[in-house]
Every structure is written in C-alpha cells, then in structure tokens.
Amino acid sequence: MREIVIHREEIYSGRIVHLSAVDVRLPNGKEAHRELIQHPGAVAIVALDEEQNVVLVSQYRLAADRIMWEIPAGTLNPGEAPLVCAERELQEEAGLFPGKLDALGGLYVAPGYTTEFIHLFIATELSESRLEMDEDEFIESKRVPFAEALDMIERGDIIDGKSIAGLFKTARRLGL
Amino acid sequence: MREIVIHREEIYSGRIVHLSAVDVRLPNGKEAHRELIQHPGAVAIVALDEEQNVVLVSQYRLAADRIMWEIPAGTLNPGEAPLVCAERELQEEAGLFPGKLDALGGLYVAPGYTTEFIHLFIATELSESRLEMDEDEFIESKRVPFAEALDMIERGDIIDGKSIAGLFKTARRLGL
Fold first, then answer.
1. What residues of A are in contact with residue B7 (Cβ under 8 Å)?
2. Residue among A77, A79, A70 at smallest CA distance from A120
3. Are strands A53-61 and B140-145 parallel, antiparallel or unpaired?
4. CATH code for the domain of A141
C-alpha cells in the first residue's frame, strides 16, 4: 500500500509552513501527484485545576475568519521537546505553570497533506506563570467546568479539531 | 481581537492546496505575517451498521509515512454539498451506500494555517454501494465494534484528528 517518492520539488519555505510538490509511484505502478506541507509539529494542553475546571483560550483565527475557543496550544521550536513546549505554551497563552504534565498521545491534524503531529498533554497542579505573555498574541483565557467544555463541543461552540480530540481523550482517560 | 488583511500574495495554486502569504494588521497596530492554506473543505463519516460496528479504512499517508486507520473521508468537489460528498465518499472508500446521513457538526483541522473545515456525519442504514471504487486509491476497510474503535484511540492505533473527534462525538451523541 506504500507510495514511493520519485520526485520532490520545494515550492515555498515559510515561517511555519513549508510546501513541496511530490510525485509518487502508486502500488499499481502508476504515478500520482501530492501536495505536502512540512510542519514542525505542535503541542496542545488540557489544563485542569483542582475543581476540575478546564482552561480555554480564545483568539481570532484568520483561516476561519472568526474568534474560536480552543485549548492552549503552540508550534514546536526547532529542537524543542514537546514537554518543554507544552510548559512554555501554557504559560504564554494562559499565564499558568503546569506542576504536572501527563502525555495523552497525539494526532495528525490532516494526514492527507500536512506532516503536522500534535502532542497532547494533561496539565495539573497549576500555578501562576513566571513567564511574560507574548504581547503580539491577542488571547483571552477562561476556566469552565469540564462538563461545560463537553457541552460546548456538542453545541458547536468548540469546533477546533485538536480541542475536541484532547477534551474527549481526557474525559475517557480520567473518567470525567 | 480581529486581524485586518493588508496584503495577500498567492504563492502556489495546487490541486488541493492553495498557499498564500498574508500580511495583517494586529489589534495593537503592529503588522504580522501569516501563511495561509486555502482548502475546499471536506467530509468525514462515522458509518454504523445494525450491530453497532463502525467502518474504518486504512491507507498509506505520505505526510505521516505510515498506514493509518481513519474513518472514511474526502475532499469536497467544487460546488458539492457536504451531504452529497459524504454519500459519494462512503461509497468510494468503503463500498457502502448510506440510507441515512445525520449531521454531526464539524471541525477546523488546523485553524492556525488552513481554512479546511470538515463536516462530520453519522451514516446508518448501510447497503452495498452502486458506485465503483476508485482504482487509484489503495484503501482497505473493515468493521469493528464501536467500543473497539474507542479502545483503538486509547491505545494510539487511531491517531487521525478527524477520526478521534468524529468517533467521540458519535459516542456522546448516541450514548455509546
């Protein structure tokens, strides 16, 4: 079932997104064309306080042309370990330091055309962050009861893939 | 919190992926650079038979360099309604015709850089397809008990974002 790459042309190398056009040999010997985004990968964090509230962040998303509620998340810096990135992003986006981070697996966001893999974490033992928040990120955060976050998915108030997956995986993992 | 587009440059127009480089004005007056993939959107289908087995498909994904288990899915053709696309894709990928399709909301796969929105559906009243399967798609399908699909997520055997979100949303909707 595998495809063999026979030609790869780099189209664009951006800050986050690197686009290649790839020709592959299919298992039946035919050739096919693929467009491939190389992405450094990312993390997303389900942060729970002691009352089982979960932290949500909202920000304007140009690609959706709307403000969206999501779990805190961010792109891996070059060479950065996912755990370190999760610790950094939760501080930058929500102003919270995670005393404990547990791996929750991960997901490919769109394996048809991007290499992006998101590492999911559950963060607990939250305390106030020692990092300054990024002044060029316009992010609001709030805490909602975990059950309310699941209701937000049901109502269509959370429509971000990693957030839906991360919240439901947490619900199952912790029996919430 | 909104960003205003002040310049947009089209970088590449491919078969599925259209890449633009966009300069925006942030709420604080500063400028920022965004890379944006325009994508036509897609559908994904949680198909359930009368014994509450769910249909999974496996295929090689170049972006992940591995064979992955996913729910059936596919990209919208120009002007195609999501419901029509779901009916077509379930036939092409799994050889099954859905007698009934119920909307299950949807999700943005990666709102930081792609416009792709996936419309989710629950398909029931399955019968054998009248469409031929695509000979250049190398896809295997199987049916597993719904609870086993949730276990596959837990074990990391399903690591595709839309599949994780679609299966959990279905579990909650139907009380499975």
1. none
2. A70
3. unpaired
4. 3.90.79.10
Q: Which residues of A touch B46 (CB under 8 A)?
A: none
Strand order in the sheet with B18-25: B4-13, B18-25, B31-38
Is there a single domain that holds both residue A26 and residue A75? no
Number of domains in chain B: 2
**What is the rounded CA–CA span in Å between residue A105 and residue B18?**
30
User: Residue with structure tokens 């597993």?
Assistant: B144
Contact list, A157 vs chain B (CB under 8 Å): none
Query: Does residue B147 belong to the interface with chain A, where contact is any CB pair within 8 Å?
Result: no
Q: Is B156 on the interface with A (CB under 8 A)?
A: yes
Contact A176, A148 (CB under 8 A): no
- Predicted confidence (pLDDT) per residue in B15-59, tens digit: 888 999 999 999 999 999 999 999 999 999 999 999 999 999 999
* Boundaries of domain holding B63: 42-174
Q: Tell whether B135 and B56 lie within a shared domain.
A: yes
- Which residues are CB-contacts of A114 (< 8 A; sequence separation ≥ 6)? A36, A37, A39, A108, B63, B110, B114
Residues B129 and B146 placed together within one structural domain of the fold: yes
Closest CA to A161 of B163, B132, B131: B163
Residues A94 and A155 reside in one and the same domain = yes
Q: What is the pLDDT of residues B123-169, one digit of tens each?
A: 999 999 977 776 777 899 999 999 999 999 999 999 999 999 999 99
User: For A64, which of B68, B108, B162 is closest by C-beta distance?
Assistant: B108
Chain A touched by B19 (CB under 8 Å): yes
Q: A159 and A76: one domain? A: yes
Same domain, B133 and B59: yes
Q: Are the CB atoms for B120 and B42 separated by under 8 Å?
A: no
CA diameter of chain B:
58
Could you tell me if A53 and A96 lie in one domain? yes
Whether residue B156 sits in one domain with residue B136? yes
